[in-house]
Amino acid sequence: MTGLIVRGSNNIFYVRPLDSSEESDLASLAGKELECRIKGKVLRGVQGYYNPLAPGDKVKIEVDPLHPGKALITELVERKNAFTRFNQKGMAPQLLAANVDMVLCVTTPASPPFRPRFLDRVLAQAERAQIPAVIIVNKWDLHDGDYDVDERLEDYRRIGYRLLLVSALTGEGMEELAALISRRVSVMVGQSGVGKSSLINKLAPHAELKVGDLCEKYERGSHTTTMSRLIQLQGSADAGCIIDTPGVRRLMPDGIGAEDLALYFREFAPLVGQCTYGLSCSHRIEPGCKIMEAVAAGVIHEDRYESYLRLTDELKELY
Q1: 39: which DSSP letter?
Q2: pTM of the shown model
Q3: What is the average pLDDT across 52-77?
């Protein structure tokens, strides 16, 4: 029997059996959740990860006839993709979601403050995984016309990212967001406090996710989601799914070296290798650097370039 990982921690995973006639559609879920453990505690194809499985993974299971509601995971079905981050505590890639159609990068114009450098990291990871990404600006009702916020958002739109301006509180933009995620498996990523749980509660009221308060002193959110979890949208079997991920204050990309980072900043990528010093160019001081020339010409936003430099330095220290 094939099942879909809904959530899991400490090597205990909850799996929903999939109807055999609809196994190709992750949104087609059938049956109750089964509590599962990995048979033999070693699963082929998951070596090297901080956690072996993530919501969205499809697995082969054997139902335990002696223990109703429990089963053993015997095999991982090959993933089409995975969205990960580098877990610095465990010094290994951490799976956040698998087999997804879209990454929803959630941010806010205020409360907490707009942080484009976090977005840049999520977008780079999505580029690395070859998963389309959409920027969701929640709490748009709090936007006071800040020029810096508008300028950076417009630059994301200019370089080809889709933006949705929404408010879980007022309902603004929620119909468009619901239409966007319909019939898709989406992973929602964002810092604590940006309102991911509130958005999901609007999109899937049956989820009843806990919503945390914002710390006014530090303008940071509290962690209300402790593990990734797959939530099916209400409606027909193919309505779609959202994978909610724990809020993080800082995301370190996985599988990207400092020397390759420019390839995952989409407006940088076409210029890689065209500098006077070719692929050895650091894009910092060399004459004839096409990326620096693009920054000077306004083709690359100065703040995006600064974000690239900072992340490059962090990746050099990490690897």
Answers
A1: G
A2: 0.90
A3: 91
